[in-house]
Amino acid sequence: MKLNDYFWGSLSLQAQAWGSVGEQQTLQPAIAQLKQQLAKLNTEKRADEPTIKFTADSGFNSEVNLEFMAQSGFDTYIADNQFRKRNPLFKASETYETEQEKRRLKRSKGKPRLFTSDDFHYDEATQTCRCPAGNAMWRSGINVNSHNQKYTRFCGYL
User: Fold this and answer.
1) What is the pLDDT of residue 6?
2) DSSP β-ladder status, 136-146 and 53-56
């Protein structure tokens, strides 16, 4: 008997740095590369072998990715974006709410947010947007997924 007849551990077979802001769109290419690596190893699954388990943090969570991974053949675990809001342990925690507020203030450099989406003018016919000062903005992303919603992202100068 060999050692690996008795022991199954964790092994990383695919890792790569991606030059993009969001993680969600990197999952499918990473899985394709992982499957290529597994094919190179020429692995044939025996009946008594455990299923390959795949884990990812909440940055990879999207409806598209969950559907994709359901078809991947891997036993997949991807953290949920909203788990802290539903978990009663976090709802009762003042610490979590305090830390969440600290992160929000850090993102806004301690300043209150001055505008909401209602302050911007979006023209659906021309697919353009103007800031509250009336300046044109440019589109920097279409079909952007966030919290199971698609939106178009616009940017502008301060």
Assistant:
1) 39
2) unpaired
60 bridge partner residues: none
Evaluate if residue 94 carries a pLDDT over 80. no
Q: Any idea which residue has 């992303």 for tokens?
A: 141
Structure tokens at 128: 């353009």
Residue 157 near residue 135 (C-beta atoms within 8 A): yes
Tokens of 152: 């178009």
- Positive or negative, the CA dihedral 71, 75, 80, 81 is negative
Tokens 């390959």 belong to 52
CA dist 13 and 10 (Å) reads: 10
Percent of the chain with pLDDT over 90: 6
**pLDDT at site 43:** 60
